[in-house]
Design brief:
rod-shaped, mainly alpha, 13 helices, 80% helix
């Protein structure tokens, strides 16, 4: 449609030129050329006609150029606006397509997500068992992307960092996991172990105590807590902790050994003697029995207490 408009204007201009030429032609025929030879008369007529045509054509061309110039500008402006419009449409379509993909991913069913998550975690755990810690890390990170609140994925990732000796990354991962599940006592133990490895015994003790408050069925936690409490010179608190360990495993010679040691430090002669008898029944070949007996005998009787 827009190509027809300039063509129509050009046709009108040509017709106008022809009209002017034919209108002026009678004037040319009335020129006084009686004294000129016939050949010169014809040549002169042609020259005059050509000059008039060229002059008229030049004038019309200028006018036509002046009239068409705004049309060209308008056409260029229209093309520019059209390109901008097309660009907006293309961007809109691209945005809608991206939105559809995003919605499609979001619309993944719960069962599909759980299946994908379980698959990724299983594969990552296999790589972890094989010692391929970099691949295990990638697998657990992929699982986190599928489910950003997956405790299993974060736990596996933390264990992987720990295996790679990436202590700070492991600490941050376990700390975030603890925010997801504050009642996860196993994570508290991991954080306690990390704190202990970095020499922060007080923080390790706090983590162990929190873990025990959540789950007091692990004797090893009480035993290790007692060891840490001894190191920070809190024997009375350590005694309560090792007593709990011994109650859970009354015939564990390691626990009885530490209980006797702490009872002697605390000056609890009665507890030390009672535990020594228990240790003798459990492990009569223990080479520390005589040494314990001598040390217990040196505890003043006035300081002796009962359990």
């Amino acid at each position: 449609m827009f190509n027809i408009i300039p063509l129509s204007i050009i046709i009108v201009a040509v017709l106008a030129i022809l009209f002017i030429v034919f209108k002026k032609f009678p004037q040319l025929s009335n020129l006084d050329l009686e004294n000129l030879p016939e050949e010169k008369i014809l040549q002169k007529k042609r020259e005059i006609i050509n000059k008039r045509i060229e002059k008229t054509g030049t004038v019309l061309q200028k006018k036509l150029t002046r009239y068409l110039s705004p049309l060209r500008k308008g056409w260029g402006l229209f093309q520019l606006k059209f390109r901008i419009y097309v660009g907006k449409i293309q961007r809109l379509l691209h945005h809608e397509e991206a939105l559809k993909i995003k919605l499609k991913n979001k619309s993944m069913s719960k069962d599909e997500k759980e299946f994908k998550l379980a698959q990724l975690i299983q594969e990552a755990e296999q790589q972890f068992q094989l010692g391929n810690f970099d691949k295990a890390e990638d697998g657990f990170i992929a699982a986190v992307k599928v489910s950003p609140k997956s405790a299993s994925a974060y736990r596996g990732l933390g264990d992987t960092y720990l295996a790679k000796n990436a202590i700070e990354e492991a600490r941050q991962t376990y700390s975030f996991l603890l925010k997801l599940d504050p009642e996860d006592d196993s994570v508290l133990v991991k954080l306690a172990e990390l704190s202990e490895s970095q020499g922060d015994l007080e923080e390790a003790i706090q983590y162990y105590q929190r873990a025990i408050l959540i789950n007091d069925s692990f004797s090893t936690r009480f035993y290790h807590l007692a060891e840490l409490l001894l190191k920070v010179e809190q024997p009375e608190v350590a005694k309560e902790s090792i007593l709990q360990a011994a109650e859970l495993e009354s015939q564990n010679p390691k626990y009885l050994d530490l209980l006797i040691e702490i009872a002697i430090i605390c000056g609890d002669k009665a507890l030390a003697l009672e535990t020594l008898n228990d240790l003798r029944l459990v492990n009569s070949d223990n080479q520390k029995l005589d040494s314990f007996k001598d040390r217990i005998q040196r505890i003043p009787d006035q300081l002796a207490t009962s359990r």
